Amino acid sequence: MIRRRGPALAFAILGISAVWVLILVVLPQLWMLDYSLRPNLPPSKVGGPEDIRSFANYAALFSNQIHFAIFIKTIWASALVTLLTLVACYPIAYYLAQVATRRRAATVMLILIIPFWINEVLRTFAWYIILALNGPLNGLLLGLGVIDQPVRWIDGNGAVLVGMVYAYVLFMVFPIYNAIESLDRAQIEAARDLGAGWPRIHRRVVIPHAKPGIATGCIMTFMLAAGSYAVPALLGSPGSRWFTQIIYDWFFEGGNWHMGAAYAFVLLLICMGFIMIMMRVFKVGVGDIAR
After folding, report:
1. Does domain 57-289 have CATH number 3.40.50.1820?
2. Helices marked H in 22-119
3. Which of 142-156, 161-175, 251-265 has the lowest mean pLDDT?
4. Which of 40, 109, 225, 263 has an alpha carbon 20 to 30 Å from 166's alpha carbon atom?
């Protein structure tokens, strides 16, 4: 950057980026951490002898069996959403990168992108209409004779999983597509000429080359799923609450920002841990993911 832009412009860009990261990322997280360590006190007692930092808010999460169970379920369900999205998107990404012609790939990409011009809440409402008791899905299945009576799809975690897989499909498709697109087709043809079947070609040639894209897609999908609020709020039933809904309730319903900050910081740590696990599993570095 220094050679191309000159030292003055390069340092200016780096300085602006550093200030941007400091103000929008580092300082808010440090403030949230400080909030999470303080008790929820009335304004008259803030700064007094009772206003001391401790891990009481974090201990409250692990001692509250209901909240802790929702936390574990959210992490497990987010991992499941990531896996389902990967399974659904890998064939699409491979088709776009190695099989489809440019015109057909552009058409499929346009079909994938156009629905995302609409707000996520509206897209989630569309799934709510589709999966409703008297919605078009039940109407179609009843008309085909597959079911005898309407099925309550929006009950439990099933609808939430479907809505999230759809909501974050692009965040999985495009990183994998970008990775597979750089793969020389001659390697696939050589493996096929040597007698390798499609499963072996993908396992030994395509997937190792696409590891950075797969890792990036999994990280983005997991973090978005774990931090999602709109999808579980609209498609979830009372018995399928998401951990983000608990955090929301602490901040805006219970008025306990300190407890909400502790819950949010635990979720942040889990997401950071997931990033480290993905980097270790796929044996990629930060530079590979940031391409």
Report:
1. no
2. 27-36, 56-63, 65-94, 102-113
3. 142-156
4. 263
